[in-house]
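Late entry, evening session. Most of the bench is empty. Finally got around to the prediction I had been postponing all week. Sequence below, unchanged from the version circulated by S.P.
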Amino acid sequence: MATTDPSEADGAPGRSRLRPRLDVRALAVQVLQGGVPFALVVYLGLRSGGYDEVVRGEAGAVACGLVLVGAAAGALPLARMSRGSWTALGLLVALAAWNALAMLWSSSDGRTAVEAARVATLVGVLALTLAVQTRAGLRRAVGGVAAGIVVIGAVALLSRLEPGWFAQPDTPRFVTGSRARLHYPVGYWNALATLVAIGIPVLLALATAARGATVRALAVASVPLLGLVEYLTLSRGGLIATCAGLLVLLAAHPASLRGALVLRGGLAALGFSLLLLLADARQALTDGLETPVALSQGDELLVATVVICAAVGVLAAVLDRRGWELPAWRYRLPRGRAGRIAGAGLAAAVVAVALAAGAVGAAGDAWDDFKDPAVPDATSERFDSASGSGRYQFWSAALAAGSEEPVLGIGPGTYEFRWAREGDIPAYIRDAHSLYFEAFAESGAVGLLLVLAVVASPFWIAGRRLGELADGRRALVSGALGGCAVFAVGAGIDWIWELAVVPVAFLILAGAAVAHAGRPPRAERPDERARGVLAAVAALALAVVAIPTAGAVSLEQSQARARAGDLAGALDAARTAGDIEPWDAAPDLQEALVLERMGELDGAVDAAAEATGKEALNWLNWLTLSRLEVAAGDPDAGVRAHEAARALSQNFRLLPRSER
């Protein structure tokens, strides 16, 4: 039977105390608060992390639609939204608006519209999270995200231990060394590592603050599983982000529960250590092979994982039942003159120890290694390497691009063109491998400041009000902030922002933490102004999401029909995509390719020329035009287009010049 929290009761005089066996409103609230976060994480995680524009757009449309319908019907927000909630939402709306405005100066309106739609999707997710918060919303939102991440982690681990249960992913076919790095179902190992890393501090917080003993035990038991998944990704960035999240969790956790946190964290660490030893001893399995030996090792590790995680859960339940805890761990930093003296002394001691240990030379060597673009081998030994795998070059190119347009940037979604033209490494790169560097390059100082404000807002808004929360609620907020810290670090060193499941998990946790900063939200008299603003925000975000998504759907239909041999249908779908997004070059390029297959070369040339006009810095458009011009009987125009393509791609410049 669904129940409501005291804060959600109507409280109207004369209302009968008898409730129906099924409280539909209470059930709907529970679904919105916990079920939707769980469903979003699982759906996006299972659909390649939500990297595909259509999948991401579907999630954004659902989130925006729920807010719009709920606000228009007078059902949302469930409680008065705090000033901090409005601040966090306003910052994200401002970022979406800035990306949309960038179409005025971007070199690719189509790609910039996609980036605006990406942020608008996140606006819908954050707005929905903030609008459904009541007193019980924090626990449900945090629990929903944690449960969703555990499901994705379990699927990921099973895909390695029992590969026959899953369709083989495409990535190992074209990325060297990727078979050894666990990436299914998200599609990218570092994003999978960051996602499960977000779940670790959240689960540890639930292990101390969840209401039910069973939930607390399951939370502890799930941590070793996620740790094993992270190890199998061989992600150094994931490890760094995990440490950051755990530090924030420990620092923000209430002192009265810190002993319980350390005890349960130690138990989870013990379970993970055992799994790590067992996995490291099974080389064929960790190398991602599918030989009989590897399959046998997978069966063995599956049994060991179930046994060890179950044992950790049982031990956690026993500790819980018997009330065995470590002493409450409190710390007080000295203040005033004593604090300054102690701080100076500690800093001097750290510097002295570092100098004695040769930290300066080691740091210099590590910096040289980081600048080396060589990619470490896909083995556990990569954890000992400081190589940036090209990030120094990617970030340098982003800084150079941003320095040329320091205020406005070169346009969201166009870093790929800059790298293709002037990159230092002959490799195809779409993203700068850092949200912050890419924001500066593509959106200028304004965009970078907005991105930093969005990422920092939960720490500033919720962190400074932690002392006002009861211990149980503060523990949950600390777990949410720990997950946010994982994202903040992970987004700085990789392109995980592009896989929607990771920022969606971050924003749900951030929204829950912000909404419960200070006094928890309570159901009260509806705020009509809040509903009007929410409805307007949701409607605008839905429009920004829907247009590029509809265009992408038509484009995918065109490609599918072309593969099936239905060229007339493919042409109609390509032109429909162009009608939906007349500013986008992709439909024109698709139309050109379809017309080429239909033998209409003059029309194909015109369509390809239209694509180069809308996206003049994309070398692929010029290369396509070059081929079509030659096929249509104009070799001089083909050579000119070929040279334009060659000038726009440092990879393409490795080829010899065109000759008639």
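Two things to note before I forget:
Confidence is low (pLDDT under 50) at residues 1-18, 654-660.
The first helix runs from residue 24 to 46.
Will write this up properly tomorrow.
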